[in-house]
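pinging the channel bc i need a second pair of eyes. not urgent but kinda urgent?? the chain im working w is below, pasted from the shared doc
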Amino acid sequence: MEQSKKLLIIGFVWPEPKSSAAGGRMMQLISIFAANGFEITFASAAQDSDFMVDLSEFGVSKKNIELNSSSFDDFVSELNPDVVLFDRFMIEEQFGWRVIEKCPRAIRILDTEDLHCLRTARQKAFKENRTFELVDLLSEEVAKREIASILRCDLSLIISDFEMNILKDVFKINEDLLFYLPFLTDEMKEENLLQLPSFENRKNFVFIGNFLHEPNWNTVQYLKEAIWPFIKKDFPEAILEVYGAYPSQKVLQLHQPKNGFYIMGRAENANEIVKKSRIVLAPIRFGAGLKGKLLEAMQCGTPSMTTSIGSEAMHAELPWNGFIEDNPAEFARKAIQLYQDENLWKQSQKNGIEIINKCYQKSDYSEQLLSLVHSLLTDSENHRLHNFMGNLLQHHAYKSTMYMSKWIEAKNKN
């Protein structure tokens, strides 16, 4: 009988699926590999948090590691994984050269989460009050690091087809190094809606988002200053509940019950809250990747209002489960219409189911991913031979990363 393969995941943070979409995605990846018999170890240099998932419940071993420490070399040599998954490019920069040095045969996979360089360039353009252009990416410092990381790995998981196109068309990355892997869900049927609260049993607008994520904080500010005044003017009894993990003082200061604007703090069970709400409001103005909160809204049968950035790469041009609108006054008008018109609301629910079934089927992607990983395990030499740019970057970049890391380690010992 074939020995089970070992997967080492090196996490940027410990997974918190109830706090962020990134945590939910990590748990989806874990479930795919676990279901296929991989022996999984999750390692991170992050501090434990009160809200991290108990990995042992999923049959995953947990390992606390240190940054810039040769103790990782001993750990990874002893574990000798077949596959190493880096959670974001910063983790590959930090640990990739150590993995190559100690376990050269291990397949290296990068989960980008979203393209950080796209998010950063958009945020910069937004703050400079100008339209983001794809050419902005080419001068972005983060892009140079992130693209180098993608090239050094055997495979990178890309969450959005918009980002896939950027990588292929703007950065000219070889398609063999990329795999499109959106959020993954089970099929949903229209009869599933009958198990969810009905139109008349739901109330209020809702926003949910982790406040450590800058686009979420900006969205709530924008809701408060630009959109909510329009909604309250035409719909005085309207209430918006804002939920999110890690709210700072500046977030809490927006709490204004007399104006129907409630800052609720962390959601113990986001799913339950979204199911009881009538509309999700998410006027996102910059960011990248896919928006977990909008997919969650569809799964909860809750129509949503978002922007063109919010809906980007999420619905394959299918009708949205609500409205996509970038103008604040129009956003408010359509949000009220969606809240009050039961037929429109029910049609939006159905649109959400069609999007889920067309764009996010677990069965469409998980087998492809595993097949790709197994073919890499069988013939990594040939795959790497054809990735000349990756080999070149590895040769040069790891020398600098390695010496910088060893210098920090030596400095820490003194």
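so Residues 82 and 371 are 15 Å apart (CA to CA). and The mean pLDDT is 93. — does that match what u expected or am i reading it wrong
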